[in-house]
Amino acid sequence: DGGITQSPKYLFRKEGQNVTLSCEQNLNHDAMYWYRQDPGQGLRLIYYSQIVNDFQKGDIAEGYSVSREKKESFPLTVTSAQKNPTAFYLCASQAAGGEKLFFGSGTQLSVL
Amino acid sequence: GQNIDQPTEMTATEGAIVQINCTYQTSGFNGLFWYQQHAGEAPTFLSYNVLDGLEEKGRFSSFLSRSKGYSYLLLKELQMKDSASYLCAVANNNAGNMLTFGGGTRLMVKP
C-alpha cells in the first residue's frame, strides 16, 4: 500500500541531545513538509522540500535541521538549540502540481 | 504573508447542524482545504474548494467566496464522533502550492 510513514510514534529527548524523526513516503511525491503542532493549536511549518537535494526554511525553522538525499525520505533533526521541543510533529507529502497533502501519523516528542 | 482566521472552539448538540467559518488573506490563492483532526492523530482530508460555491459531500459541505476571502464548513446531523479539530488551510501557488494552516477549530458535540 502506498503511504507516508513516520517513526517513532513517541520519542523522548534528554537535555542537550539531538534527536531525529523519520519520514518515509512511497507515493513518488516530489514535495515533503514538516509541521509542528502544539496542544490546541494549528500546524506551523518548520521546513519543506520541493525537490531532492533542496529544502527551504518554514516559519519556525530555528533549532531544527533537515536533509533530502532521497525522494522518499525527509528526516527532521531536533537539535539542542530548540529549547522548547515538546510538540506533535507531522510530516506530509504532496504530488508535483497537486494541492492535497498526505500526512503521516505523527511523532509526539517530549523532553525528559 | 498569509493570515487565516477561524474560531478557536465551538460546541453543538448531537443531531444538529454546525457551521465553522474561516477567513483568509493571501496572495497567489490556489484553493482552500478543510481537514479533520482527532487528538493525537494526523489530519484527514475533508474538502477542497478552488472555485466559488458550495461543494457537498454527504453530511459535510464546504463553501468558498474568493472575493470575500471566506469559507465555511457545514456539518449536518452531528454525531459524537464529529468531536474533533477542524483545520482550514490555504494553498499558495506563489510558493509551489504550499499550504498554510489556520489555528483550527475545536468542535465539541454534546448529547
If you had to describe this structure to a student in words, what would you say it looks like?
The complex is a heterodimer of chains A (112) and B (111). By secondary structure, chain A is mainly beta. Chain A has no helices and eleven strands. Chain A is globular and about 40 Å long. Chain B is an all-beta fold and 111 residues long. In chain B, strand 6 and strand 7 form a beta hairpin. The interface between A and B is medium-sized, with 24 and 25 residues.
**Beta strand count of chain A:** 11
Tell me what portion of residues of chain A adopts beta-strand conformation: over 45%
Question: Main beta sheet of chain A, described?
Answer: 7 strands, mixed
Distance between the termini of chain B: 41 Å
N-to-C series of helices and strands of chain A? EEEEEEEEEEE
Look at the structure and give the mean pLDDT of chain A: 92
Short description:
The complex is a heterodimer of chains A (112) and B (111). Chain A is mostly beta strands.
Attribute tags:
heterodimer; A: 112 residues; mainly beta; 7-stranded mixed sheet; 4-stranded antiparallel sheet; globular; B: 111 residues; 6-stranded mixed sheet
